[in-house]
Write a structure and sequence with these properties.
CATH topology of one domain: Beta-galactosidase, Chain A, domain 5
Largest sheet: 9 strands, antiparallel
Protein name: Putative alpha-1,2-mannosidase
InterPro entries: 6-hairpin_glycosidase_sf (IPR008928), GH-type_carb-bd (IPR014718), GH92_a_mannosidase_put (IPR005887), GH92_N (IPR041371), Glyco_hydro_92 (IPR012939), PNGase (IPR050883)
Keywords: Signal
GO cellular component, one term: cytosol
Pfam families: Glyco_hydro_92, Glyco_hydro_92N
Structural class: alpha+beta
Number of strands: 38
CATH architecture of one domain: Distorted Sandwich
Length: 771
């Protein structure tokens, strides 16, 4: 996910000054009031501060750098980076916390005079963080060089920009169709722009970036009439139509096509702010116009509607606790509700992985699925807090994509309907299974199961042919084989669980057997997961601390991946030699001396505590594993260590990429006091709470309240737990207990309770010891 944070004294001083005004804003009682979109915008959090509606199609945000080279775009994956001093413009699409860059479509920069240069980034504007405001659904900043006050808001399918120009100054907009957050020569394959008779500006571009051949159309409607406009194709060095720099026009000055288009629009001197309403579509210009018309009202009306939408969405969890913790958890919940994003047009049309247009009937198509990250906690959080219809839409979107995929498999890492083939596993499978097993309906379960099985049996994908023959992925045939073996085995277990619940005994039996394949790559002699060759031997030499891309493991090493058996931790502990041996190994992981190791070559390795890497997902469940060995108080100690070192209520407050909400969902669950170690088990492992009180306002109308009596720095341990007034002796909650409503109460104390939840019957689910 991330590279290590580098923050100097000057930067720290700037952060503290910039965040001081926001601290006062969090004193209100609601979760909405406490949320701070600036958290994660510095360091390597890769979040953006701009305006977005819950799961909105438009993410309207400033870009501080879009001119990076292909291998240097990592730090600007969200467009905005808190440490940067200038803004290049405001674009319509962004990832929230991704570990890869792309998007940044249709960059607009306000000007108070003609552009004197069309070089990329030439119109950068300085800004001061003191002029910024960021709230869910709203962002504003003053551009120092021009004096323009820029405000952003967004609805589900529209974005609205409002620019207040200095009195007496001509209002100008520069639209750059070249700009992108994944830049290299030839990225834009084609683009077009035109001004329609009614003044609406439309166009498109097709890009070759992280996702290949991605088509996106736009429609822009300014609130004031155009007084002039000029188009330029900067591939050709001929002056045209008022520009003083390079450019070439077309025979018709109202439209232009090419691979490097820039447009300038003039509005004269205005007596009121200029509002610019923008919509996008993956289908066509008419779809973008229809999306533009689907949400009526001016800037203030759409801002108010989106503000109410965020108040409802964030109101799903009421928080009471110390202001810094409340601010972090509220923001984490906010970041958890940005993706997957709506991506079908208002009429239901969407473009699929086959590059064809389809119609969503009875559901809203969503895209932006970072599934290797989000199956762990992000999607389980959405299942718990979001309405059934929203979760059913996610499942239907995944299945619909599979049904039109040229390869017939579920998405791996999809955005804007396009597949990137990034990361490993077939982790749409646990997302679907977990939703079904927790009672989400509104989709064709048989079609979903069929899609899951097809994905798990498509031989050409990621060494699956060898996995099905040998029971493991051989490293001499497929890179990252050790990681793929255990991730496939977990995904297979979730297929078995869903098939069993549907009464499909043959499917359940077949994939239940495959769920045990993790054993085939676990070397009991060394105590580590290891890559094996096709002849059965383990690859040598073996260094459990080595991290190299394309080697035995995916974004990690043997220390992290040896714990990835969420479906059968008890079975893995037995191979280690029992509970005591497992606890010793867990301690060795957290206490490992890294002083002689250098991971600077690996962007995604950050947030190290020994060999535990909180900045990357394979470690996220590990602190909870002490509970599987009958020592839940050790989980409580480690969670305190992680939360205090990995999260801060500041722009650099995330130790690693948020990865479309996964880092944030981890914090939300952990702060509540429980976590879904094995999605598909319908259980949550109890940790310890970090809030005095939290109430879940569940989609079914019930309320589930978590209370931590005596919680303080001096009382970090759980003394006892009650559920609805009755003692709870086990170390896990069942999903049905939460959705039924009620009260979970912790009595916190200064010393560990070494007798609570230690019995084998009190431990969370494991496949080999299933109750």
């Amino acid at each position: 996910m991330t590279a290590p944070l580098r923050t100097g004294l000057a930067a720290l001083a700037a952060l503290s000054l910039a965040t001081a005004p926001l601290a006062a804003q969090t004193s209100g009682g609601s979760t909405y009031d406490a949320a701070d979109p600036m958290i994660g915008t510095g360091g390597e959090g890769h979040t953006f501060p701009g305006a977005v509606a819950p799961f909105g199609m438009i993410q309207l945000s400033p870009d501080t750098d879009t001119t990076c080279e292909i291998r240097k775009c990592y730090g600007h994956a969200a467009g905005y980076r808190y440490e940067d001093p200038t803004i290049q413009g405001f674009s319509m699409t962004h990832f929230s916390g991704a570990g890869h860059s792309d998007l940044g479509d249709f960059l607009i920069q306000p000007l108070v005079g003609d552009a004197t240069s069309l070089e990329p980034g030439a119109q950068r504007a300085r800004f001061d963080h003191a002029t910024e405001q960021a709230r869910p659904g709203y962002y504003a900043v003053t551009l120092a060089d021009s004096g323009v006050r820029a405000e952003m808001t967004a609805g589900t399918r529209v974005g609205v920009q409002r620019y207040t120009f200095p009195a007496g100054k001509d209002a100008r907009l520069l639209l750059d169709l070249r700009s992108s957050l994944y830049s290299y020569p030839g990225k834009t394959l084609w683009s077009s722009i035109r001004v329609r008779a009614d003044g609406t500006i439309t166009g498109m571009r097709e890009t070759r970036g992280w996702a290949p051949a991605r088509k996106l159309y736009f429609a822009i409607r300014p609130s004031a009439p155009l007084t002039r406009h000029a188009f330029s194709n900067t591939e050709e060095k001929v002056a045209y139509n008022g520009f003083q720099g390079p450019g070439r026009g077309a025979a018709d000055p109202a439209q232009l096509q090419g691979r490097a288009l820039v447009a300038q629009f003039g509005f004269g001197v205005l007596d009121r702010p200029l509002e610019v309403k923008v919509a996008i579509s993956a289908v066509d210009e008419d779809g973008a116009i229809a999306n533009l018309d689907s949400e009526r009202g001016d800037f203030d009306a759409i801002r108010a509607d989106t503000g109410r939408a965020w108040e409802r969405a964030l109101g799903a969890v009421e928080l009471e606790g110390p202001a810094p913790m409340k601010r972090m958890v509220a923001t984490a919940l906010y970041h958890s509700l940005i993706a997957p994003s709506v991506f079908s047009d208002a009429d239901g049309r969407w473009r699929g992985p086959d590059d064809q247009v389809h119609a969503a009937t009875g559901f809203t198509f969503h895209s932006t699925f970072s599934l290797w990250d989000t199956f762990r906690a992000e999607h389980p959080l959405l299942v718990l807090l979001q309405p059934e219809r929203r979760n059913a839409d996610f499942v239907q979107s995944l299945v619909a994509s599979q049904q039109v995929s040229p390869f017939g498999i579920l998405p791996v890492w999809q955005f804007h309907g396009r597949e990137t083939w990034t990361m490993i596993g077939y982790h749409a499978v646990p997302v679907i299974a977990d939703a079904y097993l927790k009672g989400i309906r509104g989709f064709d379960a048989q079609a979903a199961l069929d899609a899951m099985v097809k994905s798990a049996t498509y031989g050409p994908y990621g060494g699956l042919d060898q996995y099905m023959k040998l029971g493991y992925v051989p490293i001499d045939r497929e890179p990252e084989a050790a990681s793929k073996t255990v991730e496939y085995a977990y995904d297979d277990w979730t297929i078995a669980r869903m098939a069993g619940a549907m009464g499909k005994a043959d499917v359940a039996a077949a994939f239940g057997k495959r769920a045990g394949n993790w054993r085939n790559s676990f070397d009991a002699k060394t105590g580590f997961l290891r890559a094996r060759k096709a002849d059965g031997s383990y690859r040598t030499p073996f260094d459990p601390t080595a991290i190299n891309y394309g080697s035995d493991y995916t974004e990690g090493n043997a220390w992290q991946y040896s714990w990835f058996v969420p479906q059968d931790q008890a079975g893995m502990f037995a191979l280690l030699g029992g509970d005591a041996a497992a606890v010793n190994k867990l301690d060795a992981m957290f206490d490992f001396d890294n002083s002689k190791l250098d991971y600077s070559h690996a962007e995604d390795i950050a947030g190290l505590i020994g060999q535990y890497i909180h900045g990357n997902e394979p470690s996220h469940h590990v602190a909870y594993l002490y509970a599987y060995a009958g020592q839940p108080w050790r989980t409580q100690e480690r969670l305190k260590q992680i939360v205090e070192s990995q999260y801060k209520p500041t722009p650099d407050g995330l130790s690693g990429n948020d990865d479309l909400g996964q880092m944030s969902a981890w914090l939300v669950f952990t702060a509540l006091g429980f976590y879904p170690v094995a999605p598909g088990s319908n259980e949550y492992v109890i940790g310890r709470p970090f809030l005095d009180r939290a109430t879940l306002n569940l989609p079914n109308g019930k309320r589930f309240t978590v209370i931590a009596d005596g919680l303080s720095e001096a009382n970090p341990y759980v003394g006892k737990v009650t559920l609805n007034g009755r003692p709870l002796a086990r170390g896990y909650l069942r999903h049905e207990e939460i959705v039924a409503g009620g009260e979970l109460r912790f009595a916190m104390r200064a010393t560990p309770n070494k007798g609570w939840a230690t019995a084998r019957a009190a431990r969370p689910y494991s496949m080999s010891t299933a109750r």
